């Protein structure tokens, strides 16, 4: 069993990320598996090295550890996506050989003009209607004179089904989400491609992550299949919401681990709070992450959205 946590170092780690990290770590440690940390800085415009360092410090402060990672190395190095671009290029070459890629010249304006199609995946915006998949050679030539293309992956038109360890059985309609970008016009590799290549190369057997990525999973499963790679098992845990209905991550800046630390919170207090709101414990009591390992099971994790009340929040920040 190999599990992982894969943060994007584009902002301070907040309690939502910390919770995902804690649950993924507990899943792996309770199964006696190998846990790895991977920095997902493939989006170099948003990622910052100092935030990657901060994330590592925050995770260690929480009481989590890993067997392989950017700071300690391991058999499947490197564990930082910006150092793995050649692997993504190799995967693109495989997809290209199989005829699964095409150049896309659609502008941002053209894409946003696409009405939200019924098969769109909620978190991924409207489904791409396949405009450039059907271009005639002369149309393609004409468009390529004015614009650098992005590369799109041509999905196949089968329904995608999988069993999620937390969210339950999932079924996505044929063509759900449409063909998606695997390499942007500016050369940046997409998250979808990088995460599949890396989870496969790093031998990850179990992916536990936030439910905001549930909609990405059918895309990733299509990539696994096209690349002849074995997909991991998935567990998507519900996100934390404030009483305003907004994701806690997005709004409540004071809930970064750095801010909580600065205000004097202990790791036991934060872990105890996260365990309680996740359904692992009955009440909010300080606890060390390692003390939760023996009792953990993914089936204990609440599968409904977690509404964090002001009263609950006050038990974290007071
Ligand atoms: N890097 C992604 C994020 O921070 C997580 C990717 C994943 O777990 O698949 O949201």
From TrEMBL:
The lineage of its organism: Bacteria, Bacillati, Bacillota, Bacilli, Bacillales. Belongs to the class-I aminoacyl-tRNA synthetase family. GluQ subfamily. GO terms for cellular component: cytosol. Catalyzes the tRNA-independent activation of glutamate in presence of ATP and the subsequent transfer of glutamate onto a tRNA(Asp). Glutamate is transferred on the 2-amino-5-(4,5-dihydroxy-2-cyclopenten-1-yl) moiety of the queuosine in the wobble position of the QUC anticodon. The keyword Secreted does not apply. InterPro entries: aa-tRNA-synth_I_CS, Glu-Q_tRNA(Asp)_Synthase, Glu/Gln-tRNA-synth, Glu/Gln-tRNA-synth_Ib_cat-dom, GluQ/Sye, Rossmann-like_a/b/a_fold. L-glutamate binds at residues 4-8, 40, 191, 209. ATP binds at residue 250. The gene is gluQ. PANTHER family: GLUTAMATE--TRNA LIGASE, GLUTAMYL-Q TRNA(ASP) SYNTHETASE. Keywords: Aminoacyl-tRNA synthetase, ATP-binding, Ligase, Metal-binding, Nucleotide-binding, Protein biosynthesis, Zinc. Its cofactor is Zn(2+). Gene3D superfamilies: HUPs. It comes from Paenibacillus rhizovicinus. Residues 2-276 form the Glutamyl/glutaminyl-tRNA synthetase class Ib catalytic domain. HAMAP family: Glu_Q_tRNA_synth. It is an enzyme of class 6 (ligase). This is Glutamyl-Q tRNA(Asp) synthetase. Binds 1 zinc ion per subunit. GO terms for molecular function: ATP binding; glutamate-tRNA ligase activity; zinc ion binding. Zn(2+) binds at residues 104, 106, 128, 132. Its EC number is 6.1.1.-.
């Amino acid at each position: 069993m190999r599990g992982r946590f894969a943060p994007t170092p584009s902002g301070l780690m907040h309690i939502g990320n910390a919770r995902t990290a804690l649950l993924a770590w507990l899943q792996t440690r309770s199964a006696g598996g190998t846990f790895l940390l991977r920095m997902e800085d493939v989006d170099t415009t948003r990622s910052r090295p100092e935030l990657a360092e901060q994330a590592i410090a925050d995770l260690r402060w929480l009481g989590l550890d890993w067997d392989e990672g950017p700071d300690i190395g391991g058999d499947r190095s490197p564990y930082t996506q910006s150092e793995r671009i050649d692997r993504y290029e190799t995967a693109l070459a495989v997809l290209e050989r199989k005829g699964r890629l095409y150049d896309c010249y659609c502008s941002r304006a053209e894409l946003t003009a696409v009405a939200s199609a019924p098969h769109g995946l909620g978190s991924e915006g409207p489904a791409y209607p396949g405009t450039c998949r059907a271009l005639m050679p002369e149309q393609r030539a004409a468009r390529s004179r004015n614009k650098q293309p992005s590369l799109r992956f041509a999905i196949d038109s089968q329904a995608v089904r999988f069993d999620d360890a937390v969210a339950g059985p999932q079924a996505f309609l044929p063509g759900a989400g449409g063909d998606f970008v695997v390499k942007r016009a500016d050369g940046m590799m997409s998250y979808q491609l990088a995460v599949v290549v890396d989870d496969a190369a790093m031998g990850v057997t179990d992916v536990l992550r936030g439910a905001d990525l549930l909609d990405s999973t059918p895309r990733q499963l299509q990539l696994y299949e096209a690349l002849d790679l074995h997909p991991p098992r998935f567990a998507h845990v519900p996100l934390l919401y404030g009483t305003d209905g907004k994701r806690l991550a997005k709004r409540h800046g004071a809930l970064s681990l750095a801010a909580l630390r600065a205000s004097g919170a202990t790791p036991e207090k934060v872990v105890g709070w996260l365990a309680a709101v996740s359904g692992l414990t009955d009440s909010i009591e300080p606890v060390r992450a390692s003390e939760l390992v023996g009792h953990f099971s993914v089936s204990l994790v609440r599968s409904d959205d977690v509404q964090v009340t002001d009263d609950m929040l006050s038990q974290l920040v007071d």
